[in-house]
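Protocol step 4 of 6: structure prediction from sequence.
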Amino acid sequence: MTDYPVHLAIDLGASGGRVISGGIADDALRMETVARFANEPVLLPNQMCWNMLGLWSEIQHGLRQAADNSRVASVGVATWGVDYVLLDRDDHLVGPAVHYRDPRTRGILPHAYERVPRETLFAETGLQFMEINTAYQLLADVRASAARLQIAESLLMIPDFFHWLLTGVKSAEMTNASTTQLFNPQTRDWSDTVIEGLGIPRGLFCTIQPPGTTLGMVQPSVASRTGLRDVPVVLPATHDTGSAVLAVPANGFAPSHPDWCYISSGTWSLIGCELPAAKITDACAALNFTNECGVGGSTRLLKNIGGLWIFQQIRAALERQGREISWEDMVAKAASATPLSFLLDPDDPEFVAPENMIEAIRGTTRRTGQTFPDDEGSLFRAALEGLALRYRKSIEALESLTGSRIETIHVVGGGSQNPLLCQMTADACGRRVVAGPAEATAIGNLLMQMIGIGTLSSVEDARALVRRSFNPNIYEPQNTAPYDEAAARFERLGS
């Protein structure tokens, strides 16, 4: 058993989940992974869904293991954004939690604009237009007159659902609410204009709570199964990127003219700056950037990018062919391949959810007049180079929006452990890359719980703890010229 109090971070990602314990010992953050489990989507004949009940079972098992070995001070959950659960008047699930990659929202944006003009949608929400956003998932049900909307009484975002299971208290944590395109970042409340304009029942939505709020105690039925008795549930930034940005080892908090940006790198890449207020301007709308809530009243001005999804799905396609290959071997083959031999845009719609990523790439190279490679290494390399080039374009857009020069790129999350991608990012962007910590989402979850109960006093205090606890890897630009030429080719892909 640890001899210091620990906090428990339930960290759910698009492919797996973990229960991580962490606390302060010897003036540094100490962490331990208590449990890991898969998070595989469930394919029904007509839907792609999340296995929410299976996840809840795994979470309780992980909490039980943690309670057996630690003095637990608090617990909190962070997950991806946009997806949700519906409950009826008896608090029973109304159907499954539909996956954001389910095709029900394909081509839905023009239908949304017929109900609420695009300009009004952005003025109200400041959010990037993506078909996967909660607003359009709900609109798909409105247009289909789905029975579930007719009997639903409440909507809980994915982490709010697990917090409700833990405490019996329904709420809407602010950072995840801000991913829905139903939230106004200036009033910090739900947008009645958008909700009513899209025909979504207003009564579904719970009261919004900021990160750091103590929601309640672990309820007795859960305490008896997990051993977490008299343990408070403290809301982290429940959107995983919000937690990850809190764990960036930067000096300062929410400057008006930032000189650093972050890339939260995983299945998705989210690249942006931390600002003191939302930036809802015509330029921001034209560049399709998003304003999401951060911790401490900050705003995360960012862009969602396809991330390591292509790289991951190439491996999945090979595995379906009976070919086993490790991530390390993929990176090694990519490093040996010819640089920039052909280009892929991670935001190409063809890559959203193809049955076979390799065949999708083959079709895209044909469409864009490029030659499909005859070696795997070039395929792997292009998936990473496309990300680096997309980062370059996004950083240039960030600079135009903030009016300040970005000098340092902080890469956190799983992608920070890919040295080839980090060096590509430094070269493509011509900027210093500070990579790490890799476990940023879990770290930020733990830090916000500590701020919530008073162990840490502020965001600055939390980031100072990160700097004392982790040693990042530094990548300086080395070979930028080839990316200058490739950037022009990248533009011609239609990006």
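Step 5 (inspection) to follow. The first strand starts at residue 6 and ends at 12.
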